[in-house]
Description:
By secondary structure, the protein is α/β, with parallel strands linked by helices.
Amino acid sequence: MKFTNPTVVAKILNRYKRFLSDIELDSGEMVHAHVPNTGSMKTCWGENWKVLVSKNDDPKRKMKYTLELTHNGEAWICVNTGLTNKIVKEALEQGLIPELATYKEIKPEKKVFESRIDFFLSQSDDYPDAYVEVKNVTLKGEGNIVLFPDSVTTRGQKHLRELILLKEQGYRACMLYIVNREDGEVFMPASEIDPEYARLLVEAQKAGVEILVYKTNISTDEITLGKKLEYKL
């Protein structure tokens, strides 16, 4: 997935009111940038970190700049959570996820129960129809550990319960975690932050819900799906 709008490397000064940030451009000019991230962004930004912002001159936009990536001195981190499903859709269409590569039909945002599951896959000669829920992972733990969630997520808990029900109904149910930072190598549920989510993930695995973890390759030009990672529950 390539960035479609012009981008520039800059420096972040502050993030506030969740969706706002102050950015200093190389010219010294300070601009406001939209932060498309509803999470806590723990371990994802710090004052004076290098960042990548995109620019959109649409006169209807309140802010021309959008925060896309941050850099902690060692690795790029994608903080625009709106990009995650675009990355996954592109990977599914190109057959880059071997476990899901045989499906011919890909339908985003499939309504089921009280939610919309991110992807519904059908028409495979090898597997039953599949529901795939995607989660963006950017919280850094100790060493090379990455964690989800970064705050209590009742919505995420509901998705796990629904995947269990879908598996019981005969569908293939997959929980796909996208590690959207370059310095993560092993995924774990953040049990200290949301013990109920961690418990439900173990329950889901026992019920037959598949857990897939993939890392992205991030540059200032594009983000693509990279290698598969191990996980520990």
